[in-house]
Amino acid sequence: xxxxxxxxxxxxxxxxESFSAPWRILVVEPTPEGRAAVxxxxxxxxxxxxxxxxxxxxTTVEACRIVRSAEAPAVxxxxxxxxxxxxxxxxxxxxxxxxxxxMRLVLWVRxxxxxxxxxxxxxxxxxxxxxxxxxxxxxxLIVLHVTLCAYEQRLRLRYYREGVVEALVALEDPRSxxxxxxxxxxxxxxxxxxxGGDGSALVAxxxxxxxxxxxxxxxxxxxxxxxxxxxxxxxxxxxGEGGLSWRPLPRLPAAPRGVA
Length: 260
Description:
- Residues 233-260 are annotated as: Disordered.
- There is one protein chain.
- The chain is of the alpha/beta class.
- The chain has a domain at 23-154: Rossmann fold.
- The chain has helices at 32-41, 60-67, 85-98, 118-123, 137-172, 179-195; strands at 23-28, 46-47, 50-57, 75-79, 104-109, 126-131, 201-205, 219-224.
């Protein structure tokens, strides 16, 4: 199945939904032996500074249930078994239809004749196809590293795109009561998409004095991630909830006269 070599499990060194949680890797393999081999090859591995969380699935039905869950995997490693072109088309169609668009698909084939045509790979957005006999631990780590990079880039682009849409919606209707909240959320989605973290952030407004060192009197204007839906609440009421820590930015120098 997979050959082991000294040092193959060394970490490869910045970061579905969260940019800090373990990478969820779906392993679609019909045999317990095959799943055990993959789990052994990937134990204690970190990629892009994050550990791997392997999620096993023995059937297409089970795989579809996992990919449509709230905690969808970043990558699905799919052993196509002895599936022919027609059956493989159905399998990929079902998985891709249930999965988030950012999730990457990697196929394992047993014979060169099983490699799908380019049109099928394009249609179902498959990232890579590997022959099972050639899949050493080192090769598997390289494949995962590349596909996780692609996944992370797509996830950041999604956050950025959602942020732009939210901001445009807010600007479109200046009379909307939720305009400021929507605009704040849109900007935060863009910022978290670019900077990473766990995808959670908030914007608050409060007294313009040295009281900024303490959140008393500050009110949430908008938030995303675990701070979504807190608009209008007091920041001080959120202290200690969801890991919120208050670290105000240094005060900016006043602009010279005549400069807006």
